[in-house]
Amino acid sequence: DAMVIQNPRYQVTQFGKPVTLSCSQTLNHNVMYWYQQKSSQAPKLLFHYYDKDFNNEADTPDNFQSRRPNTSFCFLDIRSPGLGDAAMYLCATSRQAGGQETQYFGPGTRLLVL
Amino acid sequence: GESVGLHLPTLSVQEGDNSIINCAYSNSASDYFIWYKQESGKGPQFIIDIRSNMDKRQGQRVTVLLNKTVKHLSLQIAATQPGDSAVYFCAENLNTGNQFYFGTGTSLTVIP
User: Fold this and answer.
1) B residues 83-112 near A, CB within 8 Å?
2) What span, in angstroms and rounded, lies between the C-alpha atoms of B19 and B84?
3) Which site among A14, B39, B40, B83 is 20 to 30 Å from A89 CA-CA?
4) Is there a contact between B51 and A106 if contact means CB atoms under 8 Å apart?
């Protein structure tokens, strides 16, 4: 029944070592989002894909990249993780774009940077 | 970014009482709002939504009220249960974009 799946649930990486987080969805939704959520803070949108079109938030660091090879999968790549990148990373989907579309979240991947 | 704020960062209620969580938003053009519940270590879970052409919507034990005049949103939980303990976020969306702007969250603790 899982609709938005994130793997792994916990990821440990070393300072500066590239890491990839994955998200998959069984909803066949057109839009996929990546959020960063730090402790006791609200989720912050990093970027989203509408189909194959990539939309980056203006304040998302270049260190964060994303790939969406097909409708079902979306990856978050952190090229050189810093200590400040330790956070929960949330993937979400919505059926369409343009507003008034509910976003459905995955369980998140908690990233620890050593 | 847009500003979506919450009046109270923490709220404690007795089991069985009703809870009210408030949210203020700043953009009068926002036309869709969602309340999410987030338990520790989990992703946000959709609770209820409301569109700007409505002022009230009810779900199972939850009611959302929207006051566009003062740009205020509230979530009411009836007969609060220990399982309702979580952080609650309101999120607003402009019809022109995909972005949801989240408030800072209210931590609800239910006292047995």
Assistant:
1) 89, 91, 93-100, 102-105
2) 10
3) B83
4) no
List pLDDT tens digits, range A97-108.
766 788 899 999
* Residue B47: burial class (beta carbons within 10 Å; 0-12, 13-18, 19+): buried
Q: What is the pLDDT of residues A17-43, one digit of tens each?
A: 999 999 999 999 999 999 999 988 889
Q: Do A107 and B43 touch (CB under 8 A)?
A: yes
Cross-chain residue pair B98–A42, CB shorter than 8 Å = no
- A103 CA to centre of own chain: 13
Q: How far is B57 from chain A, CA to nearest CA, in Å?
A: 15
Q: How far apart are CA A27 and CA B33, in angstroms?
A: 21
Residue A1 pLDDT greater than 70, yes or no = no
